[in-house]
Write a structure and sequence with these properties.
There is one protein chain. By secondary structure, the protein is of the alpha+beta class. Helix content is 42%, strand content 21%. It has a seven-stranded antiparallel sheet. The radius of gyration is 23 Å and the shape is elongated. The N and C termini lie far apart (49 Å).
Length: 225
Amino acid sequence: MIRSSCPHSPADPVRTPGGGVLVYVADALAAAFVVPHPDDYRALHTTLVHDLYGELIYHYALLSGPVADFRARIEDATVHSLADLRAGARRQQEEWATFHDRVMAGALLGTDYTYQRVYQMGGYRLSRFLPPFERRRENHIGELITDGAGRLAYLKTFRLSENQVRRGHLLAGLAAAGWSVADTAVSLGVTEHELGLRVEAAGFGHLLRQDVLDHYRAQARRARP
């Protein structure tokens, strides 16, 4: 795992004086974690070890090649003084920050989230956020605490597996259609019984009455060639 500083969150690009990390498995962003003070981070650091990155570790261990080694490069011909060396180092730092935010963490920072306020105490608000559950791309869920000025006090995110994204996509579609299987099937471009069996396969069969599920199964059998 590679850890680097985490100066901002999906909700607020304002820099914070606290401590935190971005956790990577190979080059895949697994989580962002920000707390108000470096002492808070030191106290909570071991909790990162207990988070579940198993699927990412398995995927990158078996299916990916070696991780690229990013190195800072300053051309000798451009350095004629200590000031030139400082300027070159500064450019490398700025280029890395831009590359990191746009590429390495682009899916986390460049996504529109749906926020839900969960709790408020004094001037602080706890919110949770959900991604759009787009298939075949990174999706992150998380929670954050902000103060009255919208400044970040705490952030914890978690990258979803592709299976979790599929389930979230299915539930989001049902919720948007008022939990109507027929209307959701139209929006997804599938038949009603196909969607019903998808719901069951995703582990949500308990959301359907048994007679309705049996009807979908019968329709699927009749539709087979």
